[in-house]
């Protein structure tokens, strides 16, 4: 069955995760595999790796060379099927692979050397783990006979990465090489996706061996469940049909499940007429401009989304995980609702919030089944109840929680994003947006519009500053003709600024839109509100001149200081043919609202208007 | 359920929940016997802050190269359920069974005890060993090594009785467990 799965994936290389078959079928199909057809003999380990990459649909790999991976680099040099993108730091290789994966629905791929190469990759791997991004990372290792001797550039890579990968391997024998790589790709994309590391001792890269194709590899030992239990789906739909104050709460799982999942979600939401709110990772699954979308929820979510979550009577969670940034204070989280949780990972269900109905399933399958049941039973939402519920929601909406004080003289960060969005609306190219981490990230989530899945890349679970630029590079590699914008903060961008060089080398016209407040804005906000305005080390003193910096790298830099000038500069930015920094000098004092202070419930959020009334008695 | 202190309010994470009652569970885990599998299982416990009381592991199927890990762990019902699912998620893990929840089961442990006593204490040690059906597997003029198998409680009781009689060294295997009746824990997730 694994074989079929792959061919399907190849025929349709769109944004679609591969479905694994039910266990029973797998058993049957894998029986003839036993004869072990060897497809190619007398290759070196390095050549086997290249062949395995090609057969797993890899066309781009992000990496950085070093002694322990030179045989692989040598093999890369002598072929044309795989493009290698030289990054400037291994962390960036992983983020670029994430950006590539998230924007294509394929598995992202990275290559790093032993020791420092592998340890530099750890942040990227952890980021991919927390956001469930399918990535395979190859790391070099000292030769097998030197492992454990503290050899030059030796690190216990499998030991170090065991907790930040979904699975990892140390290949000590070339005869296991091909099948290990095939399993790695299968594991990375099946079930809940995640990063996988394959550690490759140098002697294994040189060793002669035989190649076995993915079709002839037995992948049956990892076949996570993807189909829902239909009786549970019926129960869920029944609960939905009898709901008076329902809400959909959707997350990154819907994105990971592919464009079809987003389409089915849209169908289900419109069919039921229920409101929907999304996590940071789930943005794009349902168009945010639609009336039924309440905006993002959680710590910096909208007033209407968080109140709807708090007051609902039936919550339908699809592919989200009740993250602490979303739930706020747990014992006051949505106290009166019955909760349905659909997740592909059984360990996500009942992990944080106890639910009435947990369904283990890929979201696309669950959504399809839910729609079928809703239609078959001719369900209709309770019209009067829904009218009341929407009236209530409109009341919350009328608070206009995202409003901010406009200014003629100083650029408000929110205004900058509104103008950016206006320009993006007119754009004919496909548009992708990535972000760094901080206030600007939350504002981007609040003020930009999301129309389709896989066009929004942000570091949600780990909150990794320095994610946005390399991720944008990964996206631009996969979509050379698209417009890719990294919404950045002045502090975050410096964490992987060296990647400007990568963008220049590979002619990637990524746009870096820095909301420059000269502070670590998010840190400052917490210090202002919770630590007595003691701004300990949160002012980014001695920032570089970003315009000159772009220039020094061979890119283009613009600065904009007045609101009137914004549109012109954004227009210029859209026209450039190489990596471009726009240094937007924004209001240094602006804070990100609404905000649920930690330890508070959804209904205790503060709006910008009453920020002054913030409970500072604790400080 | 959530207790809240001043500090919790300032924290980025809110308050810690109050704990539900803790109980002990025995899990049988069938895994591929490959390098790193034990580290993966143990790492899961340390990384997520779960408690292991006992862990035994040995290959049980040479042809399929599978091992059986028996884990006795303690936690709230909620935590035990999480441990179960988290173990099930690991790629080399084929099956996880909570023997404590799935019907009745038998648990046995083996211990070797070295008792160095003289005169009366020596005789008393032999007498108690007899009551506990412990075997003498080594004997010198000044020492015995007893072998005892039984439930953890039985072994504990024997150990307690041997303490005043010159117990000087213990080696225990940890718990091996199997369900009663026809039901088996085998391959297949
Ligand atoms: C690697 C890393 N280190 C530290 C942090 C903690 N942190 C979160 S937001 C933030 C400030 C970000 O500042 P900036 O990039 O200027 O964005 P702003 O909040 O000003 O928009 C910091 C330091 C982090 N998320 N990641």
How would you portray this structure in words?
- The complex is a heterodimer of chains A (619) and B (189).
- Chain A is α/β, with parallel strands linked by helices and 619 residues long.
- Helix content of chain A is 38%, strand content 16%.
- Chain A has three domains: 2-216, 3-Layer(aba) Sandwich (Rossmann fold); 230-397, Rossmann fold, CATH 3.40.50; 413-585, Rossmann fold.
- In chain A, the strands form four sheets. Chain A has a six-stranded parallel beta sheet with strand order 3-2-4-5-7-6, sandwiched between helices. Chain A has a six-stranded parallel beta sheet with strand order 11-10-9-12-13-14, with helices on both faces. A six-stranded parallel beta sheet of chain A has the order 16-15-17-18-20-19, sandwiched between helices.
- In chain A, helix 18 links the parallel strand 15 and strand 16.
- In chain A, helix 3 (45-55) runs parallel beside helix 8.
- Chain A is globular.
- The relative contact order of chain A is 0.10.
- Chain B has 189 residues and is of the alpha+beta class.
- Chain B folds into two domains: 6-98, ACT domain (Alpha-Beta Plaits, 2-Layer Sandwich), CATH 3.30.70; 106-178, 2-Layer Sandwich (Alpha-Beta Plaits), CATH 3.30.70.1150.
- Chain B has helices at 6-10, 37-47, 77-89, 120-131, 152-162, and strands at residues 23-32, 51-61, 66-75, 93-98, 105-115, 135-139, 144-150, 167-172, 176-179.
- In chain B, the strands form two sheets. In chain B, strands 5, 6, 7, 8 and 9 form a five-stranded antiparallel beta sheet that branches. A four-stranded antiparallel beta sheet of chain B has the order 2-3-1-4, with helices on one face.
- In chain B, a hairpin with a 4-residue loop joins strand 6 and strand 7.
- The longest helix of chain B is centred in the middle third of the chain and has 13 residues, at 77-89.
- The model of chain B is unreliable at 1-5 (pLDDT under 50).
- The interface between A and B is medium-sized, with 34 and 33 residues.
- The structure holds thiamine diphosphate.
């Amino acid at each position: 069955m694994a074989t079929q799965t792959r061919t399907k994936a190849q025929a349709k290389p769109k944004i679609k995760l591969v479905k694994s078959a039910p266990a029973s079928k797998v058993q049957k199909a894998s029986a003839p595999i036993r004869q072990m057809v060897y497809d190619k003999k007398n290759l070196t380990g390095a050549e086997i790796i290249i062949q395995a990459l090609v057969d797993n649909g890899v066309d781009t790999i992000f990496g950085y060379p070093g002694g322990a991976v030179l045989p692989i680099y040598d093999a890369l040099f002598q072929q044309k099927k795989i493009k290698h993108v030289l990054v400037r730091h291994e962390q960036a290789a992983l983020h670029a692979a994430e950006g590539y994966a998230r924007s294509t629905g394929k598995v992202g791929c990275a290559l790093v050397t032993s020791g420092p190469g592998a340890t530099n990759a750890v942040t990227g791997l952890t980021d991919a783990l927390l956001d469930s991004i399918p990535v395979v990372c190859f790391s070099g290792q000292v030769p097998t006979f030197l492992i454990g001797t503290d050899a030059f550039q030796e690190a216990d890579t499998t030991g170090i990465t065991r907790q930040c990968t979904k699975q990892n391997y140390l290949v000590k024998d070339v005869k296991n090489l091909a099948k290990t790589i095939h399993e790695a790709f299968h594991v990375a994309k099946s079930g809940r996706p995640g990063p996988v590391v394959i550690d490759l001792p140098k002697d294994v890269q040189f060793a002669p061996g035989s190649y076995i194709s993915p079709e002839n590899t037995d992948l049956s030992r990892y076949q996570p469940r993807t189909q829902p239990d239909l009786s549970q789906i019926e129960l869920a739909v029944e609960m939905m049909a009898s709901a008076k104050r329902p809400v959909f709460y959707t997350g990154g799982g819907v994105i990971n499940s592919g464009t079809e999942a987003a389409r089915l979600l849209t169908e289900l939401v419109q069919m039921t007429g229920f409101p929907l709110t999304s996590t940071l990772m789930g943005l794009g699954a349902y168009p945010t401009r639609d009336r039924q979308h309440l905006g993002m929820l959680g710590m910096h979510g909208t007033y209407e989304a968080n109140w709807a979550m708090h007051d609902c009577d039936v919550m339908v969670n699809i592919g989200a995980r009740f993250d602490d940034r979303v739930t706020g204070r747990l014992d006051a989280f949505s106290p009166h609702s019955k909760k349905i949780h659909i997740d592909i990972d059984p360990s996500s269900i009942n992990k944080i919030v106890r639910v009435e109905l947990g369904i283990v399933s890929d979201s696309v399958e669950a959504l399809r089944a839910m729609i079928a049941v809703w239609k078959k039973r001719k369900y209709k939402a309770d019209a009067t109840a829904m009218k009341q519920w929407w009236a209530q929601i409109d009341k919350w909406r009328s608070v206009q929680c995202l409003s901010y004080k406009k200014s003629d003289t100083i650029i408000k960060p929110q205004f900058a994003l509104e103008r950016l969005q206006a320009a993006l609306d007119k754009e004919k190219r496909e548009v992708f947006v990535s972000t760094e981490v901080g206030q600007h990230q939350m504002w981007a989530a609040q003020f930009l519009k999301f129309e389709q899945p896989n066009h929004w890349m942000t570091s949600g679970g780990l909150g990794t500053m320095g994610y946005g630029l390399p991720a944008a590079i990964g996206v631009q590699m996969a979509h050379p003709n698209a417009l890719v914008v990294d919404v950045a903060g002045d502090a975050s961008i410096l964490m992987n600024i060296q990647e400007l060089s990568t963008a220049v080398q590979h002619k990637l016209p990524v746009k870096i839109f820095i909301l420059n407040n000269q502070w670590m804005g998010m840190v400052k906000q917490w210090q202002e509100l919770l630590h007595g305005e003691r701004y300990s080390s949160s002012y980014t003193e001695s920032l570089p001149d970003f315009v000159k910096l772009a220039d020094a790298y061979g890119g283009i830099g613009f600065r904009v200081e007045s609101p009137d000038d914004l549109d012109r500069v954004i227009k210029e930015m859209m026209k450039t043919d190489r990596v471009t920094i726009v240094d937007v000098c924004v209001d240094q004092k602006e804070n990100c609202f609404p905000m649920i202070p930690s330890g508070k419930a959804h209904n205790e959020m503060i709006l910008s208007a009453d920020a002054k009334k913030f409970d500072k008695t604790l400080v | 359920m959530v207790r809240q202190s001043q500090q919790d309010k300032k924290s980025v994470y809110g308050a810690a929940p109050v704990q539900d009652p803790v109980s002990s569970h025995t899990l049988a885990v069938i895994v591929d016997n490959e390098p790193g599998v034990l580290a993966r299982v143990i790492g899961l416990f340390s990384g997520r802050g779960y408690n292991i009381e006992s862990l035994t592991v040995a290959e049980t199927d040479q042809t399929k190269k599978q091992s059986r890990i028996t884990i006795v762990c303690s936690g709230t019902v909620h935590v035990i359920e999480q441990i179960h699912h988290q173990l099930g998620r690991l790629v080399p893990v084929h099956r996880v069974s909570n023997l404590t929840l799935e019907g009745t089961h038998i648990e046995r442990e083996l211990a070797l005890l070295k008792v160095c006593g003289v005169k009366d204490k020596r005789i008393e040690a032999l007498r108690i060993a007899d009551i506990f059906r412990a075997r003498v597997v080594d004997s010198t003029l000044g020492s015995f090594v007893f072998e005892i198998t039984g439930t953890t409680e039985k072994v504990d009781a024997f150990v307690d009785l041997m303490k005043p009689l010159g117990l000087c060294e213990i080696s225990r295997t940890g718990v091996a467990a199997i369900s009663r009746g026809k039901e088996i824990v085998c391959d297949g997730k």
